[in-house]
Specification:
Layout lengths: L5 E5 L4 H12 L3 E6 L9 E4 L5 H15 L4 E4 L14 H29 L2 E6 L3 H4 L5 H21 L4 E8 L5 H4 L3 H9 L9 H11 L11 E4 L8
Parallel strand pairs: 1-2, 1-4, 2-3, 4-5, 5-6, 6-7
Helix pairs in contact: 1-8, 2-3, 3-5
Length: 236
């Protein structure tokens, strides 16, 4: 039986983030999600916050701690894309994506770590992507931001690893979401050909791996990159 924890999922109002929040709720945890708009699943505490805005995060953390207690598990999932080829990518296209996906994770982890140090327990899980290591044409900004999460997790592990705190990265491949379902059938078929498993993952499959990394069973796993990609990124 896993100890019930207070869990924060950023970007928990849709897609993988929503599924992650649902999974933690199903296991009996106290779950808060941050969202710029929309709501997390029923049973979760939804707080308005933007990971690029430190003041909004401070307010969100204060509200969550008041209502649910100190945050013991943080899943940095909030992310965005602004895809275009390198020569067309503006400085703003690059910095905006990195500020959300990488600096956003840093801001959330920094705030959460204070309570974790006091508790001598913490689970930090950063949601990266197969393209963080595999690369992807048209996604220089996104790939760089997702790759950066690995250095973040490994440095945090070296700093906080002796205090009962772990920091790991989950790297999903293609997931069945509203976004992938809108792709033309031929494009979907082409993508599936490159995946040894021959299919996209469900969001729930990613969420279950994340919940496992947050459990009492994984105290000795830290600084790891766990791929959930059907074999797409093997060797990277």
């Amino acid at each position: 039986m896993t100890t019930q924890r207070t869990v924060l999922v950023t970007g928990g109002n849709r897609g993988i983030g929503f599924a992650i929040a649902e999974e933690f709720l199903s296991l009996g945890h106290r779950v808060a999600v941050t969202a710029r708009s929309g709501e997390g699943p029923a049973g979760a505490l939804t707080v308005r916050a933007d990971v690029t805005d430190g003041a909004s995060l401070d307010a969100a953390f204060a509200e969550i701690e008041e209502k649910l207690g100190p945050i013991e598990v943080v899943v940095a999932n909030a992310g965005m894309t602004r895809d275009t080829l390198l020569l067309r990518m503006s400085d703003e296209d690059f910095t905006t994506v990195v500020d959300t996906n990488l600096a956003g994770a840093f801001r959330v982890v920094k705030r959460a770590s204070k309570g974790m140090l006091k508790a001598k327990f913490g689970r930090i899980i950063l949601v990266s992507s197969v393209v963080g290591l595999l690369g992807s044409a048209g996604q220089v900004n996104y790939s760089a931001s997702k790759s950066g999460l690995i250095g973040l997790a490994r440095s945090v592990t070296r700093e906080l690893g002796s205090r009962g705190i772990t920091a790991n990265v989950v790297a999903p491949g293609f997931i069945e979401t509203d976004m992938t379902s809108e792709l033309p059938e031929q494009t979907q078929a082409d993508y599936k050909k490159s995946i040894p498993a021959g299919r996209f993952a469900t969001a729930s499959e990613v969420a279950k791996v994340i919940a496992w990394l947050a459990s009492d069973d994984t105290a000795y796993i830290s600084g790891a990159v766990i791929p959930v990609d059907g074999g797409l990124g093997m060797g990277h």
